Amino acid sequence: MRRFFIPLGCLLVLSACNNNTKKEEETQEAWEKFTYPETKKENVEDTYFGEKIIDPYRWLEDDQSPETEAWVKAQNAVTFGYLHSIPFRDKIKAQAEKMWNHEELTAPFDIGDYTYYYKNNGLQNQNVLYRKDKEGKEEVFLDPNTFAADGTTSLAEVNFSKDGSLVCYLISEGGSDWRKAIVLNTKTKEQIGDTIVNIKYSGGYWHKNDGFYYCSYDKPKGSELSEKTDQNKLYYHKLGTAQSQDKLIFGGTPEEKNRFVGGYVSNDENYLVIRGEETTSGGKLWIKDLRKTNSPLINILNDYSSDTFILSIKGDKIYLQTNLNAPNGKVVVTDVKHPTPENWRDVIPETDNVLTPVVAGRYILAHYMKDAISQVKQYDFEGKLIREIELPSIGTAAIDSADEEDKDTYFTFENYYTPLSIYKLHLESGETELYWTPKMDFNPNDFESKQVFYTSKDGTKVPMIITYKKGTPLDGTAPTTLYGYGGFNISYTPWFAVTYAVWMNNGGIFAVANIRGGGEYGTKWHDDGTKFKKQNVFDDFIAACQYLIDNKYTSKEKLAIKGGSNGGLLIGAVMTQRPDLMRVALPYVGVMDMLRYHKFTSGAGWAYDYGTSDDSKEMFQYLKGYSPVHNVKEGTCYPATLIFTGDHDDRVVPAHSFKFAAQLQSKQSCKNPVFIRIETNAGHGAGTPVSKIIDQMADWQSFALWNMGYKDLPNSK
Q1: Angle between helical axes of 566-577 and 655-667 (0-180°, round to 10)
Q2: How far apart are CA 652 and CA 656, in angstroms?
Q3: pLDDT tens column, 542-573
Q4: 449 noted as active-site residue
Q5: Whether residue 65 lies in the annotated active site
Q6: Using one digit for the tens of pLDDT, what is the confidence trace for 371-409?
Q7: How far apart are CA 142 and CA 137, in angstroms?
Q8: Tens-digit pLDDT profile for residues 252-305
Q9: CB neighbours of 377 closer than 8 A, spacing ≥ 6?
Q10: Long-range contacts formed by 236-239: CB under 8 A, 24+ apart
Q11: Distant-in-sequence, close-in-space partners of 328: CB < 8 Å, separation ≥ 6
């Protein structure tokens, strides 16, 4: 075990030493001496296709073990001792609190006798659901800040019955994906029936006012935070009955088993729509006529070869969004009696840009993504182009759906330096008007973005958007954070976050690379970053690092790389493949053990992107070749690393990060620190209280800047 120490006195006087070079050097030397908690090794041996793999930290997979709990506490003690002693950490935190402390609002929606909307007065840990009656009187409807004193119980989803008289709201405790559902009479706010438990990856979707559909897994026999859950089921809960009497509607039978199931009721309440998935890409599709007792399931798609969703059902016509034989997506229409693909007719054909449509009033609003930038076109249901909707600028528009009788809808707009604002769209005229914009301590006019296209290892052109404060020196000296994800067909279009606004305000550059594995250019872009092509993702990101260095945006000594979940895997793989290319690595809730990821919770559902070590010898060898846990090598100097995870993460279990930290701490060959920051009573990220988000932000930014050599914030005079 490496033994270091931090003299407390040096930490206390650090900021006072900045004007004295000798004392500063002594303080820096002392700072670099710290003690990692001892992590025992208990070698567990697995055999894959005749090859033996040693796993010395298998014991850290047991989230119920007192030893694991003690290890977490010991790691956090060292990590927070280091982070909280960085002299300018609290300055960053204060900046974030000041910028964050403004009212936030969501677009309103009318349900029954009320208009509902979410609002945050500034630094509230969770957004509050408000409503106004017909006279405009405002009241709090649901305030999740009252659910738990520390703000770690969040409002996960809210579903109203069609007439608005009932609501089913779901809560998440400690960031877990397991949810509880509570039904209220919206007029009186009185609870109806018992709390429904063990809901996962689902809301509560009403059919009339009789009851609702939801999805669940059988309760795990072991730890519900790590035990494998791979057979999702759709249930119907009749209001006023016990959950034990809920009817199994779909899934969990020998005839139809799916890892993920979705079920909801069409807007006219005539049909139940069911989707079954084996992985996170591709799904089967059915509908069931709810007007007829014991009606059969009507199959629309009977394989997992496409992502197809129902947009709208109008009478006997079904409108579908699909990428079947259309990698960039299209809209088709078919008949309820003959719904299978051979009967589909194009309404909005495929184009060169990725399509995500929304139904609003009597129209289809087609959101296109061109080089990760939004374009919106308005069509009628016959596929006639009505107009292109003018957006405020270059960035990301997110459009709300609207009922057929509605004349207006709303959309949000944002980019890397424009805070999210809400616009009203008048559907008949196509005119837009600003509905709400935040009043915050931030001036977008002081910032600029530039989109570049760089060349990856195999010659592929990859887009990247680079954002910074005007006047930032572009001479290779600016501290830079490069962010990436690269997986699961997820597209990273421009967004605004206080986190990066603070970073840029302090003289930093923020860059986002739209690497393969995402959905920015459709199915092919996604598939070119999966399974045996996963290395393309890492090569794309490495090339982005090199571009930023070669073009004098930053240098190796001033570059931090950051990503979460699948993006955490990205950071883990890139820093182990090219540890010489960056100064700081910030992997969040990453998938780090590629040989065992599918053994936990719903991890097996990620196999479309990754493959599994059980598939074949070739797949095992490929995964082993980049698995971060298995590619930490003795005698290598890795960048200063701060790993983030949550002790209640039941999506990417924290053992991934635990084992990666243990490997790095054991094998790091230079003085660059390796810490793991384990958020307690927190999960994969959704519902994280604002106070915790701000603390995390202050920690990663101060850690990055300190390890880049800054004694104060870069813009400090």
Answers
A1: 20
A2: 7
A3: 999 999 999 999 999 999 999 999 999 999 99
A4: no
A5: no
A6: 999 999 999 999 999 999 999 999 999 999 999 999 999
A7: 16
A8: 877 777 889 999 999 999 999 999 998 889 999 999 999 999 999 999 999 999
A9: 365, 366, 368, 385, 387, 388, 389
A10: 236/207, 236/211, 236/212, 237/196, 237/204, 237/211, 237/212, 237/213, 238/210, 238/211, 239/166, 239/183, 239/192, 239/193, 239/209, 239/210, 239/211, 239/212
A11: 350, 351, 352, 353, 354, 355, 521, 522, 523
Among 176, 202, 456, 565, the active-site one is 565
**How far from the centroid of its chain's Cα atoms is residue 650's Cα?**
14
Helix-helix angle 655-667:66-83, to 10 degrees: 60
CA distance 177 to 200: 6
Query: Is the CB of residue 683 less than 8 Å from the CB of residue 154?
Result: no
State the DSSP H helix or E strand holding residue 130, giving kind and residue range, or none if neither: strand 128-132
CA angle 646, 647, 651 (to 5 degrees): 70
Task: Classify residue 533 as left (phi > 0), alpha (psi -120 to 50) or beta.
Answer: alpha
Decide the pairing of beta strands 418-426 and 408-415.
Answer: antiparallel
- The one catalytic residue in 613, 656, 684, 702 is 684
3-state secondary structure 180-223: EEEEEECCCCCECCCCEEEEECCCCEEECCCEEEEEECCCCCCC
Query: Quick count: other Cβ atoms within 10 Å of Cβ 369?
Result: 22
**Separation between Cα atoms, residue 649 and residue 682, nearest integer Å:** 7
Q: Which residues pair with 668 in a beta bridge?
A: 636
Which of these CATH numbers, 3.40.50.1820, 1.10.10.10, 3.40.50.300, 3.40.50.360, describes 36-97+442-707? 3.40.50.1820
Q: List all residues 6 or more positions away from 283 whose beta carbon is below 8 Å from its beta carbon.
A: 260, 275, 276, 277, 301, 304, 306, 307, 308
Beta strands 480-483 and 509-513, pairing class:
parallel
For 396-416, b/e burial (b = at least 16 CB within 10 A) is: bbbbbbbeeeeeebbbbbbbb
One-letter amino acid for residue 324 of the chain: L
- In angstroms, the first-to-last Cα distance of the chain is 41
The closest alpha carbon to 586, from 667, 696, 433, 512, belongs to 696
Q: How far is CA 659 from CA 249, 603, 621, 696, in A?
A: 40, 17, 20, 21
Could you tell me if 175 and 200 are in contact, meaning their C-beta atoms sit under 8 angstroms apart? Answer: no
d(Cα 548, Cα 564) in Å, to the nearest integer? 21
Residue 7 clears pLDDT 50, i.e. is over it? no
Largest CA distance in the chain: 84
Separate counts of helices (H) and strands (E) for the chain: 12, 39
Query: If we measure between CA atoms, which residue out of 587, 593, 592, 590 comes closest to residue 560?
Result: 587
How big is the chain by its Cα radius of gyration, in Å?
26
Q: For residue 33, what pLDDT is reported? A: 59
Q: Are 181 and 169 in contact (CB under 8 A)?
A: yes
Separation of alpha carbons 302 and 313, rounded Å = 19
- Distance CA(352)–CA(293), nearest Å, equals 44
